[in-house]
Prior knowledge:
Blueprint: H1 4-11, H2 46-52, H3 55-60, H4 66-79, H5 84-108, H6 112-119, H7 122-154, H8 161-169, H9 171-180, H10 183-208, H11 212-220, H12 229-237, H13 242-251, H14 262-298, H15 309-320, H16 327-358, H17 364-386, H18 390-407, H19 409-419, H20 422-425, H21 432-460, H22 464-490
InterPro entries: NRAMP_fam
Membrane topology: Multi-pass membrane protein
GO molecular function, one term: manganese ion transmembrane transporter activity
Amino acid sequence: MPSDHHQQLLDSDDRETSYDQTEKIHIVGVDDNDDDYTNATPPFSWRKLWLFTGPGFLMSIAFLDPGNLEGDLQAGAIAGYSLLWLLLWATAIGLLVQLLSARLGVATGRHLAELCREEYPNWAGKLLWIMTELALIGADIQEVIGSAIALKILTNGFLPLWAGVLITAFDCFIFLFLENYGVRKLEALFAVLIAVMAISFAWMFGETKPNGKELLIGIVVPKLNSKTIQQAVGVVGCIIMPHNVFLHSALVQSREVDPRKTGRVKEALRYYSIESTIALAISFFINLLVTTVFAKAFFGTGIADKIGLGNAGQFLEERFGGGVVPILYIWAVGLLAAGQSSTITGTYAGQFIMGGFLDLRLKKWARALITRSCAIVPTLIVALTFDGSEDTLDGLNEWLNVLQSVQIPFALIPLLCLVAKEDLMGVFVIGRFLKTISWLVAALVIAINGYLLQQFFAEEVSGPAFTSTVVIFTVAYVAFIVYLIWRSVVGSTFGFFKLGSQST
Length: 504
């Protein structure tokens, strides 16, 4: 069971919380013979599964944002069907990470940002917050630009990128409006947007008719060669979004679950595992559709390496013609749904990250506006500067992908350290086998992204001044990662080999 320190955290009334008690969804049957399930797990109920369904689908949006769609289309166009197996396993890796995040949130009653504030010294906590905010801003720029590109296509170029950015900025107000009417209304909106993506890209799949046999072989038979290694790295690298790890640990607290009752926690984890698996299976299906469409259309052609979000629809139109509904607009509708949904979840994540790391007492609308402004201002600058230059936008997207890759250890390492601490997790601490698998997965993801960084900087970094700056930041970066791992072994607020006199 949780330690006394953990119990104090649960019972504290003056701390920042993910959801007010009035906002949480009541689970039918929780009050019926509740004492019977203090330790025992209640029987399975389809009705309860429905009530727990929602957080996993909000989490899955990060697997479908415009950055992922661009990675999909480039993997399909350049590598054909050969990387579909990697897409499947990358999604499985993402599911493992997100289930650990959900486990942390349900078992402790707190989310990752809050726990990082308690776990690490003030300077380290603030540095983690800065890193996470940078990752969130970078992701939001990609998402907002994706929405703006879609709006530009749908208006036949009438709306420039900067206008699309301003329109997308109002997502924040839609989010705030729906949040006032309850969590379920917000979750329903995301379900609709995911359905729009699924229908749009399935329509494209039907229009282009990819090869079914090659598709199945691509999923089952692992293939990798030197020509597709960069796309392979991109497929894995864009699956785990740092802010999404923080987000999921907070989303699961939207349901009434008493972390002091082992049976209720087990029940919640069971339902969250089922709905998260379903949600990511759907996201895999959508990513699969996009990859195979572009594999059929452009693999082996001379323009395969020139396709990006901005020109993908036009190339499809030239390849397959107009049809009853022009494929250009079908692509734009799917891209718009991806961009709109991911920008709203970015705003949502920003609330929890800012509130958790800084222990703010601001109203949610104030935090949402601050978070939105942090992303919209640089995005507007990007739109005004690079509108009409697709090559430059693609180059910027590569830099933003690098930014995401750099931040991944600062979400994964704290998560894995915290879920392995018995004094924090109680009976829900992960066992040795799961801990080993999780760290191996984290090492693999970090190594893959390290390769991506090395390749990128080898191509982009030049000149002694720039090189020296990169080296200095790299040394500091590696030192901070080593510190995070070291601290999990020798000292922690929540236990393991705790240093009794250590101050946080």
